[in-house]
Amino acid sequence: MQAASSGIGYGLKYQARCISDVKADTDHTSFLAGTLSLKEENEVHLIRLSSSGTELFCEGLFSHPNEIWDLVSCPFDQRIFSTVYSNGETYGAAIWQIPELYGELNSPQLERITSLDTDSGKIKCILWWPSGRHDKLISINEENMYLWNLDVSKKTAQVQSQDSAGMLHKLSGGAWDPHDVSSVAATCESYLQFWDVRTMKKTISVECSHVCSVDYHPQKQHILVTAEYESGIHIWDLRKPKVPIQELPGHTHWTWTVKCNPEYDGMILSSGTDSTVNLWLASTNHDDLTTERLVDSSARWVDPLLNSYSDYEDSIYGLTWSSREPWIFASLSYDGRVRLQMTEMPDDHARSVVIDTYLCVKLNRGNSLVGNHLFSVVVNLRFQHVDFTLLSLGNKALYQLKEI
Amino acid sequence: MRALLLAHAMTTPLFHRKILCNFYLFCLLRHPLSLDTPSAIVRVECASWVAVLHVSNFSGVQGVREPQWTLAALRMTDGVAPQLDQRHKATAGEYAVGLVLEHTLDANYARNSYSDEDDNVSFVLPVLISKIEGVSLSHSDSTNKVQKEDMDIDDTLLDEKARRTRDLLASFYSPIPSASSNNPFSKHISPDDINSSSFQPDQYMKIMARKSNLEGLLQKHVEMVAEIKNLDTDLQMLVYENYNKFICATDTIKRMKSNILGMEENMEQLLEKIMSVQSRSDSVNTSLCENREHIEKMHRTCNLLRKVQFIYDLPDRLGKCIKSEAYADAVRFYIGSMPIFKAYGDSSFQDCKRASEEAIAIIVKNLQGKVFSDSESMQVRAEAAVLLKQLNFPVDYLKTKLLEKLELSLTDVQIIPEVMKNEYPSVHEAAINEFVEALRAFRVIFPDSEKQLVKLAQDLLTKLGSLPYNAKYFVIIEAYVMTRICSEDLLGVLRVIWNDVLRLVEVLEDISLSNNSLEATKNAVKLYIRSAFFHLMQDISDHLLKVLKRGGAEEYSLEVALDASIKAVYDGGRNVLLDIHKILDDNLEIVDKLRELIIDWVQQGYQNFFRELEVQFLSFLGRNNSSATQSHGLEGAQGDKAFPRLALDLAASFCRGSAGGYDYVLSFVPGVISQKFRAAGEKFLQLYINMRTQRISLLLKKRFATPNWVKHKEPREVHMCVDLFLQELKITGNEVKQILPQDLTKHRRADSNGSSASSRSNSFREEKEKLSRSNIQKGRSQQLLETHLAKLFKQKVEIFTKVEYTQESVVMTIVKLCLKSLQEYARLQTFNRSGFQQIQLDIQFLRTPLKEIVEDEAAMDFLLDEVIVAAVERCLDPIPLELPILDRLIQAKLAQHKEFDLISP
């Protein structure tokens, strides 16, 4: 895979680990990035893509008291986000609000809504309710998982329930199932542990070693993707948790993060400590036998690696898709460089994606999925500058597009 | 005018006939003088008769009865008429009409003819009328007409003669008499035409008088007179000539008549004589009849008596035959007398029958004995069988009995391949000889038993048939093949069997047998090849298993096992090839036929074999993978280590094999296979590296996770984790050394570059140290900037390169991966000063021993520096250790190491 064009860059002042897509901002493609500097004044950058789509500019710059290890934007309010921070010795987590009129202030301070302090443990990450306005939050620290009840207006947060990971196990991260909001997955050292948040009880666990990142498939229930330090990326079907349905080779060194594309089925992004971001096209259609057969027959999945972006200087810890423009992703390397990248797939892949969409539409017939697939067609058209791709596609896809 | 007529006649197809008639007419006219005599009448008759004959003949030939021909005949008589009186005329006419009627048998026709040209034949009218009325009374109107015309004739009697003559000629010479009359146009156009039938002299005269002058008229008159004269003479000439001929004919007829007269009497005499001869012969016949019957009766009785005598003599005769062993005669006699015995056996010839049956029983017994006795010659036995068959003896029973005997003898012909080698030739040869002889005999005795024999032979050879399963040649062979045998044994057995088959085929003359056995041989050889490959596979997997089991135990065993397995693959492959070569080289006919097929099979076998081998490797890979991850142990890994090498070797060897022309016939697809093996080898290698790194990674993780780095105490010594790390590397190095080759080229280059590289790295380090020292004074952001700058200026080190099949490459990859992990772990922690110093110390210590291990020092240094940078970045108070202290601590560690080495070398 040749390296794609280097995309749009933006430099943070210090080293950084985390970047988050501002989901709630429907007007702009914006991201939040937090720095990781032990001794300096840390900052949170609100970065926005210019309307021309060629430039990243800093919409807001806020100082943050401690170095930021985790940052998640609130899914329903673009001004709210959560951070996990550390002052070197102790860890803490807090919900912040970007002040109104921040543009006019000289050095705007973040409003701390509440801090999610617990008695013990090194807090690892905060999970927001997957979609929509909801008062539930989850924080995961090394030993425990807490379910919080957040009241933004009263600026309070209370632990609703909690559960221990168990002895000898240290949690490192997690993901909230967008399809079944009662289920949360947390990464442990050698397995993936699932909780039912209603009862706060452990449900199932999937055995996989050194898992460090997990992401649910945004469209398909039961499908989830994990990144493991040394053994690459695994795609799981939770109904068959014994063996992964697909394995992707991952990175030459550790695979740090893995993110599913919010719209397009099977497109997976991974970043690693070998300073590359890889774009994969994986088959998640294993429950759909017909499609699988089609896939097999056309033998399109010979190389699942669509593209490898290797134009980085350091390990990449931060990675996110833009939910507003899902063909865009932002990556953050340790040296503090944000890079916005338009995914561009090679010709035949774009074509196969469109054909795949066509097949999906054809197969599903129902209307529920058509919206998504229409979107993915549009996505692919954006990748390949509409006319070229479609012209080479022939009548089928064109016809289908019209129909949609 | 006559010339014109003739010319006209010439154009018609009837010309020749007219000439003939004309000729007769002429004959009549030439002899007018003799016409008054009665003989003249006869002549006229004859002339008419001959003319009519001709006419009727001609018209008969023509198939058309033309009235003008009969008319012509009439006219001939009429032509003669001027010299005859009315009476004669009538007689002649009557005669002619009779003839005409007789010939045409058509009264209407005749009458029509007459009515058409009535005026010409007026002299025969009375006769005609009576005759026609006799034939057909119904045509009265036509007769009336005729009668009316008759009266007209009287009026114009004066002109009649001239006109008749003219008309006769005109009608005779014109092809169709009615043509002139039927042609109104011509009639109309030439009433003055002198030649036309409607010529009117008065009108003509008038026209002439009007048209011509006197001179012309006179001249015309002279011309006409001359013409008339000419015509008259011509006419006369014609009639004379015809008549002359008639006379000749009449003479001939008269002579014939006189000759016939005496014949009748002679015939009558002859008849009388014949009658008398017949009556005499009848009388002789009747007198002899009685005696003959008597003699015949006597003869019959005599025959009967002779037969009775024969039957009475039969028992004695049979007895004699038995004594002289003339069984054929005996059987013939007996069968000859069978009908009599059948008819009268119960009454008059009872004794006789019994006696002869007894004799026959003896004969049958003797014959049976003969058939079964092996000592008798084939001929005799066959004859005996035939005789028995004639005697209605149940031959089938005999046959089955003999067959049973043959089947029994089959067991003697068994092949026992294990025994074959030593004692086969004599024993088996004898057995098969016997069997073949028996078969031949059987075939001669029972010529119609071919099918059964073929079946029997097939029984012997293949699975079909009733023999116990394990007694078939090819079943035995197949079983034999499944055990480990070398190709010579197989060949030996095959040769024996083929010989046997050939002999059997020779005896039985059945091609299907040899085809069957060819088929069976094919199977056997196929099976042999398959089993050869199977055994080869088994050998190899045995070796591999051994490797797996012993893998972790001792170091040297790894090598040995590896060698053994490689050798197994090599030698096994070669042996199989050699074996098959032997088979191919042997010029046994049966194998010859299969040569192409065998080559195919072997190629297929090889390809399958390699494919299977690869699959097995991969499955080993999977197995080891799971076991290794479960136990986090290295036992599996060590076993694994062997495979990449093995796979690699195989790949290489087969590449070589194909290049050097492994075998001229066996050209499989080595490229694909070696590629596959290469891929498999890479996978193994990757797995190995992964497992190694994982283990070290775990070690490092523990190292970083356990202490509280923020509250770390001052470093007193190099952490033992470093020892463990080095130890792991050493183990890996040892393993790698055992199996992978040294990369000579690279090694040398590394050596030569060694000094410069290290110097560069040293200088860099110093720089770095300076940097870090200066960092203390400078601001943090600046420091970061500077490190970034430094990174930019420094050549970007390719950390992750492709792994190669060399010791150095593998070790280097592992080291690189581990150091990178170290860096990442460091980044996840926060250090206080002491913690950072500890890291610094550890890394510093690592440099020297790693240098010895690692091939690419620059990359290693870079990575180590990166670790320190990471630690600096994550340090709250990054003040490095003073160099002397650092050196001291390292020296202490080294001393400790030496001590340790001394204690346990």
UniProtKB/TrEMBL annotation, chain A:
WD repeat spans: 248-280
Family statement: Belongs to the WD repeat EIPR1 family.
InterPro entries recorded: Beta-prop_EIPR1-like, EIPR1, WD40/YVTN_repeat-like_dom_sf, WD40_repeat_dom_sf, WD40_rpt
Protein name per UniProt: EIPR1-like beta-propeller domain-containing protein
Domain EIPR1-like beta-propeller residue range list: 5-280
Record flagged with keyword Repeat: yes
Sorted UniProt keywords: Repeat, WD repeat
Short name of any one Pfam family annotated for the protein: WD40
Organism the protein comes from: Vigna mungo
A GO BP entry: protein ubiquitination
PANTHER family per record: EARP AND GARP COMPLEX-INTERACTING PROTEIN 1, WD-REPEAT PROTEIN
SUPFAM superfamilies (alphabetical): WD40 repeat-like
UniProtKB/TrEMBL annotation, chain B:
This protein's UniProt keywords: Coiled coil, Golgi apparatus, Lipid transport, Protein transport, Transport
Sequence segments annotated as region (Disordered): 743-778
Pfam family name, one: VPS51_Exo84_N
Coiled coil: 253-280
Gene Ontology BP terms: endocytic recycling; Golgi organization; Golgi vesicle transport; lipid transport; lysosomal transport; protein transport; retrograde transport, endosome to Golgi
Bias (Basic and acidic residues): 763-772
Compartment(s) where it occurs, according to its Swiss-Prot or TrEMBL record: Golgi apparatus, trans-Golgi network
GO cellular component, one term: cytosol
Compositional bias per record (Low complexity), positions renumbered to this chain: 752-762
Subunit structure: Component of the Golgi-associated retrograde protein (GARP) complex.
Protein family: Belongs to the VPS51 family.
Described function: Acts as component of the GARP complex that is involved in retrograde transport from early and late endosomes to the trans-Golgi network (TGN).
Protein name as annotated: Vacuolar protein sorting-associated protein 51 homolog
Organism encoding this protein: Vigna mungo
